Amino acid sequence: MNLSEAVSLYISHKRALGYHYRSEADLFRAFCKAIGNKPINSINTEAVMSFIKVDGVVTPYGVKKYYVLSGFYRFALTRDLVKVSPMPDTIAKPSTPPFVPYIYSHEEIKRLLDGIPAICTNRVHIDAEVLRVLILLLYSTGVRLGEALSLTINEVCLQDSYLRINNTKFFKTRMVPFGNDLTLLLTTYITQYRGYHAESSEAPLFCFQNGEALSHSATQNAFRRMRQQANVQRQDNSSYQPRLHDFRHTAAVHRLIEWYRKGKDLQILLPKLAIYLGHVDLSSTKHYLSMTPELLQEASQRFENYAIGGGS
């Protein structure tokens, strides 16, 4: 059996068990492209490790590659697709500091949006308006990238201003309301842009120029070019550069800062934020509330007001 056939069989197996397996499917596409569609029994350890490593080094993403491919080869062994697994028993994990999400400033978000037309070349195959609306939706709603890319046109309720997110991370459906600005943006986008390209209301909200739904890998590659064009990067020697998923963190932090400034009761609002983000409990939401200088200043001001009796 050739590699692509075995991979298709494995992905179907995982999805039959209830896994979305979207990012992993992108990883397998890259693996098949790197290795070639050769007989699965002919793939050796050297070829696998060449795919896992970058410039001879195992990166954090390389660790993910290792575990995903290990699962695939365990599957292949149990079904006699291979006699011996080319996967090494262990892999040297990189020593990295604790991951800290990146919180975009309003000015950085503006630079990212302004730079979109410059990166939408024939190499990208994504229209500038698609990327612009995607970024604004991620920031305005805090939805996950996979949730946004899975949206169809009929899952955007413009009349009542909400998104219907089906089959979320926890296999539930939730409604995500949004404000007037995003309502106007999506109305224009759907009626004036997607209306000309979509054959039905079940068409993907975000698509390539050929009408097919955007993939995770292509969207992330386009964002990397956006980030480089806008010169948005970490200054803390982190091995991770700002990601699309960080718009979810940014949305949560900016909302918290706004509540601080308006003197809102966070004890009441934080559980509501958890529900809005689709978390099963409040502890999951705390992961998104990174302490930024701006947030720290607002929290300190709230405490000072409380200490001198000027407010809660």
What can you tell me about this protein's structure?
The chain is mainly alpha-helical and 312 residues long. Helices cover 54% and strands 3% of the residues. The protein contains 14 helices and 3 strands. The protein has helices at 3-16, 22-35, 45-52, 60-78, 106-114, 116-119, 128-141, 145-150, 180-197, 216-230, 246-261, 266-277, 282-286, 293-307, and strands spanning 156-157, 162-165, 174-177. Strands 1-2-3 form a 3-stranded antiparallel β-sheet. Strand 2 (162-165) and strand 3 form a beta hairpin. Helix 5 (106-114) packs across helix 10 (216-230). The radius of gyration is 22 Å and the shape is globular. It starts with a helix and ends in a 5-residue tail after the last helix. The mean pLDDT is 84.
Distance between the termini: 67 Å
What's the rounded overall pLDDT mean?
Answer: 84
Identify the strand order in the major beta sheet. 1-2-3
Sketch the major β-sheet: 3 strands, antiparallel
Q: Which secondary-structure class do the elements indicate? A: mainly alpha
Question: What share of residues are in beta strands?
Answer: under 5%
Oligomer: single chain
Individual helix count: 14
Choose one word for the global shape.
globular
Overall strand count? 3
Which consecutive residue ranges, at least 5 long each, have pLDDT under 50?
none
- Taking all Cα atoms into account, the compactness measure Rg is 22 Å
Report the order of strands and helices: HHHHHHHHEEEHHHHHH
Helix content: 40-55%
